[in-house]
Write a structure and sequence with these properties.
This protein is 44% helix and 15% strand. It is an alpha/beta fold. It has a seven-stranded mixed beta sheet, sandwiched between helices. Helix 1 runs antiparallel to helix 2. The chain is globular.
């Protein structure tokens, strides 16, 4: 049954993303970047809702009150990355536009990547590390001054359930350079959408938003260490089955 659900969901995503992406590319020449973002967020909400209708995956959100309340209050969101689910969910639930930092190779993904390329986000060449980070800081500062929140996955890639990747300091360094707080976010998506797996399981994904952490006067390693400690402790609390107690 879960296999059939997964096939139906993939089919639904495919038949909706094509006209959506073509529409986004077409209207991108005539509307503002903010309006274009919300057009895209509408499809992502549809994608998340289809995950509920077809796959039986529901979201349980904690800590929305920890997000900045002002329309122009900047922040860097640092999110646990276990599956594709959170890449869809974050724009669907956040009250402000987000700008992902992502590898430029995604721009060549048919339809989806073409639409992403029309959005005001930060795509980087990972091979040019110093130049890539300079681009992140330059564009990140500009976007946050415009009221956009920058979102990054500090582990850099999807990490299987119950495991921890290496937390890289790029997000902390951006926050320090821009003088903005970081918001740690824990997500238990792999409980329902296993990392890099086709078959998904119905259930509840917990999304826990932590309190803002000031970056002022902080060292990047120290700041990211605090983010890492909070996220991983929260992951243990939200999904204890994935972290069996050591004897």
């Amino acid at each position: 049954m879960n296999f059939i659900r997964a096939v139906l969901h993939m089919f639904w995503m495919a038949i909706t993303v094509i006209p959506w992406a073509l529409f986004v590319v077409g209207v991108s020449y005539f509307i503002s970047s903010t309006r274009l973002y919300w057009v895209c967020a509408a499809w992502l909400r549809l994608a998340v809702n289809s995950g509920t209708w077809i796959l039986g995956i529901q979201n349980r959100i904690h800590g929305m009150e920890n997000l900045p309340q002002g329309a122009k209050d900047p922040a860097v969101l640092l999110v646990k990355h276990q599956s594709t689910w959170e890449t869809f969910v974050m724009p669907a639930i956040m009250p402000h536009p987000l700008a992902y930092v992502f590898k430029k190779e995604l721009l060549s993904v048919p339809f989806f990547g073409w639409a992403m390329g029309r959005l005001d986000m930060i795509h980087i060449d990972r091979k040019q590390r110093s130049r890539a980070f300079a681009k992140v800081v330059q564009q990140g500062r500009r976007l946050m001054q415009e009221g956009v929140w920058v979102i990054m996955f500090p582990e850099g890639t999807r990490i299987p359930r119950g495991q921890k990747g290496e937390y890289k300091t790029g997000g902390a360094r951006l926050a320090i350079a821009a003088g903005v707080p970081v918001i740690p976010i824990a997500v238990t998506s792999a409980r329902c959408w296993p990392t890099k797996a086709f078959i998904k399981k119905p259930g509840v994904v917990d999304i826990s938003i932590g309190q803002a952490i000031s970056s002022v006067g902080r060292d990047a390693d120290e700041l990211m260490g605090e983010v890492e400690n909070w996220i991983e402790a929260e992951m243990h609390r939200l999904d204890p089955e994935a972290y069996p107690a050591k004897s």
